[in-house]
Fold this sequence. Notes:
Blueprint: E1 4-10, H1 14-19, H2 21-24, E2 33-39, H3 42-51, E3 56-60, H4 61-67, E4 71-73, E5 79-81, E6 115-118, E7 131-134, H5 140-149, E8 153-156, H6 162-167, E9 173-176, H7 180-183, E10 190-194, H8 195-203, E11 207-215, H9 220-239, H10 241-248, H11 257-267, H12 270-273, H13 276-292
Parallel strand pairs: 1-2, 1-3, 7-8, 7-9
Antiparallel strand pairs: 3-11, 4-11, 5-11, 6-9, 6-10
Helix pairs in contact: 3-4, 5-8, 9-10
Amino acid sequence: xxxxxxxxxxxxxxxxxxxxxxxxxxxxxxxxxxxxxxxxxxxxxxxxxxxxxxxxxxxxxxxxxxxxxxxxxxxxxxxxxxxxxxxxxxxxxxxxxxxxxxxxxxxxxxxxxxxxxxxxxxxxxxxxxxxxxxxxxxxxxxxxxxxxxxxxxxxxxxxxxxxxxxxxxxxxxxxxxxxxxxxxxxxxxxxxxxxxxxxxxxxxxxxxxxxxxxxxxxxxxxxxxxxxxxxxxxxxxxxxxxxxxxxxxxxxxxxxxxxxxxxxxxxxxxxxxxxxxxxxxxxxxxxxxxxxxxxxxxxxxxxxx
Length: 305
């Protein structure tokens, strides 16, 4: 049987590697599909998505506003800025626009997200006069930064080059994503603002960072099959954590096992299996605020596969 080739794009990072371990290492029966894994940094994947280059791909939630006509959101594979699921209680059947409504209550033990760091102690107010290294203009981290600070003077560079650029004084500050969020202190850098915590204080929601999307022009049954395979891969990794983590560490750029485990746990958890109502609400709110600020196109409808 000739199998249908499906190009699957994701970042070469521990959390994505952990998520896709079962598919990458043949732990699942993929049926009529041959999954081709393509590793690229998130900004490249965001740019490719604008061209509809891959069948399934990880992208930034921010980027989804720019590719919504080509791709639908998948219900699994999200990276959310929260360690544990938020618990919402709402009255009535209609969700109001503001998550701060009295109709909602939330219990979240830890919110986290991209960090702005500097090579010296710095007040948040000083960032308005700083040049900030950022990992791409379509990243959710950059959108959150703009929402938090307003106008931003920035310099785009590869995400893994940012810590050293800040340490060397090549930029005043840097916006960190991926594992640098838990190693920056080892590199002598100082936290200026945690954007995940800032977002939670503003909205009582987790900060939606990454998502997986699938081409809308694929037949619906194919979209659904691939969605089930993605969910099965995440389920497998969570059920076989040690072996999946060992594979993920190959993408950890020197992370020790304990640190890799912490980082993977930050972004592959209950949220990754399914956004749930709170996660969907978070995506809606981020894209709504981005549009209101003139930073993103309007998203007409969120479609989840």
